[in-house]
Amino acid sequence: MIDKELLRIIEQAASEGITELDLSGKELTALPPEIGKLTQLKKLILGKYKYDEQGNIVGIIGNNLSALPPVIGFLNHLEELQVIGNDSLTSVPPEIGQLISLQILNLSNNQLSSLPEEIRQLTNLQKLNLWSNQLSSLPGEIGQLTNLRSLNLNNNQLSALPKEIGQLTNLRSLGLHCNQLSSLPGEIAQLSNLEWLDLGCNQLSSLPGEIAQLTNLQALVLQSNQLSSLLGEIAQLTNLELLDLSSNQLSSLPREIIQLSNLRSLKLSVNQLSSIPREFAQLTNLEWLDLGCNQLSSLPGEIGELINLQALVLQSNQLSSLPGEIG
């Protein structure tokens, strides 16, 4: 889009007092200072996802922005800002902290290497999406976003989390998939309202005992880590419906796992399990059980008591027979 056309769009938006402006897919390399005139805007889209009929992401309609102008801070009525898919965008200006009405901020699929400390001023923010950037650390100031309900940090380069993350007590969903985390701060236990925690594709060799305090957790994803054992304290997560432990180094499971009576899906593929405890039969709500790619030579007959099971995956084991009770 040439500058004159963009300026015309901005002028028209200003004169008509529109509250939503979509500039995705316009091949923008920069935003003119005139964008600061649109103080009535509540939603600004500078890049977005493309969805199929089922609601799945199938592409990105982005731009070529390398920076956001400081005048972005003038848009203090913005409630939603989407800046998705700008391969040259490595930072956001500190003036973003002036967007005090912002409730949704989506900065995914860019090249951000850091966040400004001023992000702490976005105290009305409820959803922050930073998926697929180059973040190696988070500022401690992120803990001041106490109204956050969803934080997506998947596909970054985080090697540690600031202890201040424990201040996000309204958080319901935390995505940390595909980072470089080798440990978690004990303060994660303070996220008492957390329902979804994705820690897959990291370098975790153990979990802090404090994770057992996340009693509202419904989904815990730990696939593709380096876990060789599981804490018995995990049994305290009695609201868990999904537990994904696939692609780890587990050779056994704690018997306390049978206390997770609300489990619907248990994924244990690609581990080193040689047996399944008979007490598994107590997980009567299980609908999906994946035991593929282990070292199982037999199954306990009690597995037949899992009467709600809809899927049982057993490929790539050492089974020569199945118990009759499976019928």
From TrEMBL:
Top-level taxonomic group: Bacteria
Keywords recorded for this protein, A-Z: Leucine-rich repeat, Repeat
Disease resistance R13L4/SHOC-2-like LRR domain: residues covered: 60-155, 163-270
Pfam families, A to Z: LRR_1, LRR_14
InterPro entries assigned to the protein according to its UniProt record, in alphabetical order: Leu-rich_rpt (IPR001611), Leu-rich_rpt_typical-subtyp (IPR003591), LRR_dom_sf (IPR032675), LRR_domain-containing (IPR050216), LRR_R13L4/SHOC2-like (IPR055414)
Protein known as: Leucine-rich repeat domain-containing protein
Organism, as annotated: Scytonema tolypothrichoides VB-61278_2
